[in-house]
Amino acid sequence: MxxxxxxxxxxxxxxxxxxxxxxxxxxxxxxxLRRTGVKVLVPEVRDLLKKAGCWMDGELVxxxxxxxxxxxxxxxxxxxxxxxxxxxAMELEGRKGYYGTGSxxxxxxDAYSGKRRKAVLDDVGIVARLxxxxxxxxxxxxxxxxxxxxxxxxxLYHFREMIRNTTKPIIYTAxxxxxxxxxxxxxxxVSGGAESLRRKPFIALYSEPISPLTHANDSCEKxxxxxxxxxxxxxxxxxxxxxxxxxxIAGALVQAIAEQxxxxxxxxxxxxxxxxxxxxxxxxxxxxxxxISYAAPEFMIATTAISEMYHYYQLPIFSFSGCSDSxxxxxxxxxxxxxxxxxxxxxxxxxxxxxGYIESGLTASYQQLVCMNExxxxxxxxxxxxxxxxxxxxxxxxxxxxxxxQYLSHEHTYQNFRxxxxxxxxxxxxxxxxxxxxxxxLGDVASAKVQxxxxxxxxxxxxxxxxxxxxxVIKKAENRVK
Amino acid sequence: xxxxxxxISTLIIEGKxxxxxxxxxxxxxxxxxxxxILNDGLxxxxxxxxxxxxxxxxxxxxxxxxxxxxxxAMTIIRPLLAETGVETAGKVVLGTVKGDLxxxxxxxxxxxCEGAGFEVIDLGNDVxxxxxxxxxxxxxxxxxxxxxxxxxxLGAMERTIKILEGAGLRDKVKIMIGGxxxxxxxxxxxxxxxxxxxxxxxxxxxxxxxx
Lengths: 482, 211
Ligand code: B1M
What we know:
The structure holds 2 protein chains of 2 kinds. By secondary structure, chain A is α/β, with parallel strands linked by helices. Chain A folds into 3 domains: 28-72, no CATH class; 74-383, Trimethylamine methyltransferase-like (TIM Barrel); 393-417, no CATH class. In chain A, 47% of the residues lie in helices and 14% in strands. Chain A has a 7-stranded parallel β-sheet. In chain A, helix 11 (331-347) links the parallel strand 17 (317-320) and strand 18. In chain A, helix 1 (19-35) crosses helix 9, helix 5 runs antiparallel to helix 18 and helix 10 packs parallel to helix 11. Chain A starts with 18 loop residues before the first helix and ends with a helix. By secondary structure, chain B is an alpha/beta fold. In chain B, strand 1, helix 5 and strand 2 (119-122) form a beta-alpha-beta unit. Chain B is globular. Classes of the chains: A alpha/beta, B alpha/beta. The structure holds CO-5-methoxybenzimidazolylcobamide. CO-5-methoxybenzimidazolylcobamide sits between chains B (99-106, 108-109, 145-147, 149-152, 176-181, 196, 198-199, 202) and A (103-106, 145, 173, 206-208, 210-211, 218, 238, 240, 244, 290-292, 360-362). CO-5-methoxybenzimidazolylcobamide (B1M) sits between chains B (99-106, 108-109, 145-147, 149-152, 176-181, 196, 198-199, 202) and A (103-106, 145, 173, 206-208, 210-211, 218, 238, 240, 244, 290-292, 360-362).
């Protein structure tokens, strides 16, 4: 048989922008950078931009379009992050998506008491162990911001705590360049040297331009250091629509992309080929509360649309998911989180973060995290779509069973039923059985799962030598800030 | 109430800032005192806006338009109030602390305070403790407002208060703080005079503190 032009498998996706609209947005972005420009607060970076041919006006830098197009072509379209051991773990390219947590929440919901309290260093260890154990959470951001260590260098403590408790890739934050240098020193110790870290990076920095249209001191300094070393960086704005960006999504997209792409240009001028993960957060400012929403439909639309733009550029994408504005792990938290999980999967972002955030990024919820792990499994099932082939159409089986028969005991059922999703936390039992088992809510089950992981899961430890060397870096830093 | 005063209230509620200068001048020509314009025209309008915002009938941009209208009228009547010795809401010196670039919350607080009749001196973000102290010396505000969104920058608030104490200025000004990781406990701990969890309560607190 000849079967020409057959498409083997279609998985679902969404499309919000047409090709013409993407071109229109890109062209507006280039025009914004040409006409209005961006502020760059560090002279060394301004010099680079000037040498490349930008138009300078004090701190304001206007960028000719060809430079942006050059940066898009020069930056890698794929960034591979490894695990702590050095095995490839995430291929950030195309429409391959990976879920992970978020960073730096001042509060957490305690794993045992269920009370909201200030985050401590132990919470960073807890979230790292959870991520290490959860099958569908692929990378770690620190979640809690430790209130019980020296504040100036809490980022160093976060980093060490994450290293100690997971082998999965880490997206970290750094308060300033000096701290970043210390963190990279730690990462090089873990990886076995600078060359090894560059070849098999298991970490990427998360840093951002400041909307509107500013590359601030710390942002530039961090780029200078990391791009200088050719190490991966997520450089994406956190724009608030109607606050630090236009209230209309199209305008917010243009501004956010201009901020990101001008940052991309900076990295490629520092060192061509520096791995950068782009796109950006376009959050809604809620105009009745005057606060930020992490689960507004506008945020979801904007995230999907900016992902489409970065598919068009063929650049890796930072995206959002599994987060909520709710103050506790409740119906709202799971509804918003679940909606995000499917939308971000359909949108095709690569590094999909903030899973487990509640209270618009101010609080970390472990229950939310394990619940979203469950939903990730469900979403992955959905995303496989319909696998159409002879084996699955199963004409022979249908004939064999025939009218009035049954499939339950058929070999085909036995061979294939496990390919359908089997929930771990979601309850499908009868009312009777549910009652007998204690009439547990999803919150109860999620808490139990959190506690079970914390009590049983042992992540792969780092060696004593490495551990001691990390401690030395932190001791040095303590002395530095004393 | 005079028609002009009720028109002033309505224009404030509708945020018609472009019309404020002419209506305020008209009221003065009618012989209404600056004091009366403020307390029987502008303030009732703003109070209504505040109340409607609280129950969710008005939104941030509505309130900011009203605040702009208030500001426009105040540019005319503030000097007159000063001449006649009428107490106005006073001055707020405001900024986001050293090392912190989060400024939208602070901006919102500033605009709300302007809406409440305060003159606001905004020092921007990443403000050194010394710069706050200098501004207190220079502007002699009733309120010093500091905003911080980062755990790492909260300490800068305490440092600013210490330096104010050192300069003998602490009892000359009321200190109000806010920002997502800030709470009442922290305010007590660093001996700030007040903490507000959002911009609307911040302007109320500012009024309270200036009494
Ligand atoms: C004087 O009296 C008063 C009284 C009341 C006052 C007051 C003063 N000030 C505020 N209020 C109160 O009234 C306001 C209105 O009702 C309210 O103000 P808010 O400011 O709370 O609310 C605003 C109206 C809207 N909210 C905001 O503007 C903040 C929103 C979130 C998402 C946020 C944003 C947008 C940004 N951020 Co950043 N950011 C987060 C925020 C998470 C969150 N949900 O808060 C937070 C605050 N950020 C955080 C972090 C870690 C960071 N951020 C950073 C950067 C940024 C952006 C530049 C991307 C952007 C800010 C842009 C800008 N121009 O402001 C970095 C630091 C940069 C710096 N040096 O400042 C960076 C360090 C991240 C990094 N990778 O480097 C976290 C803080 C953790 C901590 N406690 O230390 C964070 C909670 C998010 C998170 N989980 O990571 C009240 O608090």
